[in-house]
Amino acid sequence: MRSLSILGSTGSIGTQALDVVRRNPDRFRVLGLGAGSSHELLVGQVREFMPPVVAIADEEAASRLTATLGGIRGVEILSGPQAMETLARGSDADMVPNAMVGAVGLAPSPAALQSGKMLALANKESL
Asked: Which residues are CB-contacts of 9 (< 8 A; sequence separation ≥ 6)?
């Protein structure tokens, strides 16, 4: 079974990656989810997949996410500009799909590779 930490999980490519996980629960499990600021969609994803780690870059959205998910045990919430890089480097996932939009997706790509994870790159700036 392949374990994933999906960066940009609330965007188009990230939601498609989660659709693949839904259709193949025997092949994939989600260990991390990351988003920029879309905390509403991220809340639903967290409730469905129950990853041990969630990252959200926007501090204000992180506060709302924490308030909403406060009752869920076993979910660590990372926030701030380094949250995605921390998730890419530190999770126990063996694959990191980077579906982040723009230059914010640059730092997590080498972080994932340097920590020995397979990188599934959908962030063109990292190329």
From this structure: 15, 17, 18, 33, 34, 35, 42, 45, 99
What is the SS3 assignment for 65? helix
Is there a contact between 100 and 12 (Cβ–Cβ < 8 Å)? no
- Write down the domain spans for the chain: 2-126
SS3 (DSSP) at 28? strand
With tokens 């640059």, the residue in question is: 106
Q: Is the pTM of this model over 0.85?
A: yes
Domain range 2-126, CATH class: alpha beta
The per-residue pLDDT for range 20-35, each reduced to its tens digit, is 999 999 999 999 999 9
